[in-house]
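Hi L., both proteins are below.
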Amino acid sequence: MGVTATSALLAIFAWALLTFYPERGSEAVESAPVAATPAPVAKKEKAKPKPSKRKLTAAQRRDRAAAVAQLGDLGYRPVSLKAYAPDHDPQGGA
């Protein structure tokens, strides 16, 4: 098995040499250098403003404050209130 693999690798190496190197005595064909053309400069468009997120209503802010207070009474401390989702159902049902 090892001899077969070694001979296959040598065959690939020989094929690569014959493919990439020109034959002796033949003149290599050189192509003319290509003139570099400058790329067209695109005009910058003004950035579109990002759509603003919906803000919480007064009732949702009250509910959030109550939830934070209730969890605070149980010993939990909020890390961030940004993750609050007023439409989230903690029971997972409808």
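That was the first. Here is the second:
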Amino acid sequence: MDAPAGVAALSSGTATAVAADTLIRLAQHPRIVAVKDAKGDIAASSQVLAHTDLAYYSGDDPMTLPLLAVGSARQAAEALVAAADDAGGRAHPRCQI
């Protein structure tokens, strides 16, 4: 199966954060398309957003606005549009913009 995949930048199961340079390298894989980030490190998130086209989602409510300010909303919207295009314009109803 060639389904797209995302990375949890801070795994609640292990409490291990994924470093920004690791996320940047993972972004080169064609199936890695998104990050859910709960690290609370806006500088690291900004670095990943600047160097990748990953869709970026906040996994930490207090960081949602700062992540939106550095571009996560644009990335997420572009990923949803791309997914709809890949599906022949038939995106899941919750993903339609």
